[in-house]
Amino acid sequence: MDLQYFFELFFGGLTRGSIYALIALGYTLVYGIIELINFAHGEVYMIGAFTALIVAGVLGMFGFPAVAVLIIAALAAVLWAAAYGYTIEKVAYKPLRGAPRLSPLISAIGMSIFLQNYVILAQTSDFVPFPRLLPDLDFLEYIGYIMGPSDFIILVTSMLTMICLSLFIRYTRMGKAMRATAQNRKMALLLGIDADRIISLTFIVGSALAAIGGVLIASHMGQVNFNIGFLAGLKAFTAAVLGGIGSIPGAMVGGLVLGLCESFTTGYFSGNYEDVLAFGILILILIFRPDGILGKAKVQKV
Amino acid sequence: MKRIVKAALVAVWFMVLTFPLMGIKVNSVAKTLTWRWDRTALMGAATFFLALLWGWCFERKARGLPIISLPPGGAGRRPESGPGVRRGILLAVLAGMIAMPLLSSIYQTNIMISALLYVMLALGLNIVVGLAGQLVLGYVAFYAVGAYTYGLLHQYFGLGFWTCLPLGGVMAVIFGLILGFPVLRLRGDYLAIVTLGFGEIVRLTLQNWSSVTGGPRGISNIPRPELFGLQMGIEESSIYIYYLVLAAVLITILVISRLKNSRVGLALQALREDEIACEAMGIDVTRVKLSAFALGSCWAGFAGVIFAAKTTYINPASFTFMESAMILSMVVLGGMGSIVGVAAAAMLLILVPEYLRAFSEYRMLIFGAVMVLMMIFRPQGLVTGEKRRYRVPGENRARQTVEASHEARA
Amino acid sequence: MKPVLEVTSLSQNFGGLRALNDVDLTVREGEIVALIGPNGAGKTTFFNCITGIYTPTEGDVFLHMPDGEKARLNGRKPHKITAMGMARTFQNIRLFPEMTVLENVMIGRHCRTRAGILGALLRDRGTRREEQASVERSYELLRSVHLHTLYNETAKNLPYGAQRRLEIARAMATEPHMLLLDEPAAGMNPHETRELEDLVREIRDSRKLSVLLIEHDMGMVMSLSDRIYVMEYGSRIAAGTPEEIRANPQVIKAYLGEEAHA
Is B290 within 8 Å of chain C by CB? Predict the structure, then answer.
């Protein structure tokens, strides 16, 4: 096997993995705070991609320059996805606080199905071509033989986003409040942290990250449909679990590891069972090491 | 007034929220752009009223009032008149079901067959989710196992329907146990995800293992069930299958209601209510969980075989996660653990979109909404309170006291 | 008197935390023994350890069976331990809330009955007879805790004190010879507490079992128990009759003293 092929797979895996990581962060943030698998998260990612597609389409028709289209479309995607995330929480999860554990999960599954079909009805159930929003940067040509320019942009953008998130969580007031709430919700309440606001914020941040991932991947793949959120969501959830759900660095590492695994199996063995691999990893991790690579074991309370 | 302002704000919020997706349609190939203001306006109006209704529902919920009150099924209120009336209704429904294929077209018979198959599936899932409280999201995998058991055994060994029916059940049970063993220790939400992954793995394997399963094209020319070597046209055959499914559903109902009220059934329900207390009461949780998986998957296996025989053609596309979610929403709507409720919900959710053409597009949208709304406003499902009556020593006195306490509260 | 429950140098670690440290405890036939100590002393952990919810890190737990056999409980699963004749209640009530009062007790009968899936489907004579026997037995138990009139009520609708009594009836349905009660009087008013005291005594006398209970109500502990063990910070700090405990300076300092100040 030659080295160039190896590097192609390696960077392909990193690109793919960094998208998984972006979406996985949304799962992990929400799980960390309200212990809910936000099933509708994949749909927020899909809606982000669709919003970018529509806004870019409108702007393109009015003849905006490519860079402006990219920036405005991405911004719109982030804003609307955040709004969707916020609304989903208010409608489907907030009324269920304190309900038995499975109720919000079933509600989340319902929300996910609802949103998919909402997009089918509002737009279409077919694949829609996505405009090539990512610019071809000339200076990237010399690395072109191991990774495409869009790969490079995806990698850099998602890394930058993750660094920003880490800084936000670590240093800002709201980030600190989020961490506190994740560790002990009751205590945080006693200390005067408004848990409802923090939960909303978590959904907004997670959804915004998913939208960035959605725009990046959609312009890389060149098409979207209503169903892209399901698979991407599940894989991102796998990544989150792999890294230890609730852990932010865990989600990043998990995403990258999963991306690399997929890329190498596809490259060296066969692409047919790529998804089976992801689900297999998910099941094995949940069964044998449910706290993930970077998670901590918890004692069950009686 | 405050409520109206609030509802108006909600309406504006939703108009903005849904504007890009609902209000704009871009065709990038034809380079056309359609603004659909009418839809956005409609959205605003609809959400305005929904917001009012939403607020009203929450107020009622906060005051502890029921949002929907159903007269029958709310048993326990009047144990004397309950069973008689209910038996009458059930007998009437049964008579209608038996007469149905003779009175209606083959098209409608076919719809009814698939509705009944869903009743069977929903009742099977009800054992696992409703009685035992194990949220399984990959239930359709066992349905697929049943269908492919028949398809493959017929294709490679020429086995017939009646041989394959029990085998399909057995294969599904084996798969249920394969899934059941490793997930024993998993908590509720992790269990849900693992079973979802399992379901997808089964589907993807069927799709990619082309040399054996025919890949995405699936298996065709599966024979319909035979009846003592009788030659049947498509119409007779459909009617035959209809009665077959009806019988299967009746057997399912009989088995599950007996199971529910047995020692094993009580253990299943205890598991749903509190796993730790269940163990402390001397119940072997491992065994009970595995029984739940085995019993639940068994019905899906049978239903799968019948499905394959009905359609004569199967492919992996029939066994997606959406299918599992649909079956789950029937259980949720009907009421976890309730047999009548789940059966009725399955019929309702299949037949209403089928007969009201206007609804059929919105079918899955409704399924999703049903799951969310039920969890919020009526998590116990439409039909609840199917309390079983036990014969206790000194029954009459005790009953009077219970009655008295009921009246005192009412 | 013969011992029924024998615990020797029991320790439990959670990660780096030592929740139980070298605890010895014996309950003899027909005794009512109390386990007391400040919150967080490790009393409930002790219960969880001996009933199989946790596996002890070190030490031994023995249960003497009525036939004279001595069984080691370490590492056995909770349901096995219950089947061997040691039943428990929970500090934070763990009933089966959506099921009826009678059904709650009937579930306690699970490990003493046999009917399987086949029996459930066929509903043969044996199964029906077993079920009816189970109903009657459970009803009798409900009568003994004065809940029989409410047998068809949903468990979650019972008042708090009644839920505690139902938990005891449910535990009794497993036919234990060793009964563990985790704060049975918590949340009860003085009148209910006195009734509970009588109930525990009566159960002990009529069913010939031994009782180990965790309790904070000192009045109840002192009047009810034959012997008392005191724990603090996961260790046993004293053991003896109520009089001895009342006079023990270490206990007064650690526990009663704290209470006296408050």
Answer: no
